[in-house]
Amino acid sequence: MNRGVGGPLLCIGDLLSDVADDGAAADGDGGGGLPLSSPSPRPLQPSGDLHQVFEDNYDQLIQSLDGNDHSWTALTLKLCAALKTADKLVTEANSNGESLLEKVESLESIIKRGDSAVSMVKSLQSVQIKKGGSLTINSNCKM
Known about the structure:
Residues 23-50 are annotated as: Disordered. By secondary structure, the chain is an all-alpha fold. It has a domain at 12-102. 69% of the residues lie in helices and 0% in strands. The protein is built from 3 helices and no strands. α2 runs antiparallel to α3 (72-131).
């Protein structure tokens, strides 16, 4: 792995590599993660605000890179944290969508069985009415 020459300022490749390494460590053992001096990620927000938060972080980063200050390192970490949060939200939404789809399919199956039972009872009633008798339904019967 080629890294930039040491010194007080990191090259952007070093920073992104460190963030990727920290992210892999945090995913693996549940600890570690971003340095304590980095800004903490915002709590999960409604999806309408997430896009705006990302744009604000990105705009701040671009302004910092255009200027002479060194806040771009913290802003880059903040942007990476926002991207991780967005990735977790997408993963959770996909998982919830799959679960919802399974539940809908289960409900459709139940509705079809109910419709089948209703049509069976209606046909039995019509046959019984044609014969002129009374209809008694056994409530212990499983459908």
